[in-house]
Amino acid sequence: MEEMEKNVHVLNHPLLQHKVSMLRDKNTGVKDFRQIVSEIAALMCYEATRNLSLQEVELETPIAKAKVKVLSGKKLAIVPILRAGLGMVDGILDLIPSAKVGHIGLYRDPETLEPVEYYCKMPNDISEREVILLDPMLATGGSASAAIQFMKNYECHSIKLMNIIASPQGIARISKTHPDVELYCAVVDEGLNEDGYIVPGLGDAGDRIFGTK
Questions:
Q1: Catalytic residues
Q2: Which residue has the higher pLDDT, 5 or 12?
């Protein structure tokens, strides 16, 4: 893992790089695209949860008593930013099935490129959980920044943002508006085009996950 700047982590694992390349290919179909997004989320989850707290307990193996370590402290919540973030949920739940799932619905105004909220639903105990926000793409950073603020409005104090592909502009925005939030991504691309899409990117992640285009 390589650190670009404080709290920004670019994950350079070979498996991640290989799978991201498969996502970029315009010939990758919906079924494979959806599966790869889920696999990438699971791989990234290992790093994003590296600092979860542990406690020692005693149990019996078939051979003898043993002191082992289990997760302790704050529990986890994952919050996909709709709709593309939904594609990352199952990969994480496969690893941490006890995690609760909240949802934030945002769309980007085509004129201002700023986020507009249309849905927000959280677990009742969200403020007591460590939160990982999910969105495959971090473009302008507007939606992610707004989603982070929503979580802070719920009095969440431990928030991480997980993206597959990020732009330098998006990273800069999150670092400026929410310097306390750790950001995890697999790749940082060149930048944004005039429509606010990441270049070279992979197109519209939501459309490619759900086959809507």
A1: 108, 112, 204, 207
A2: 12
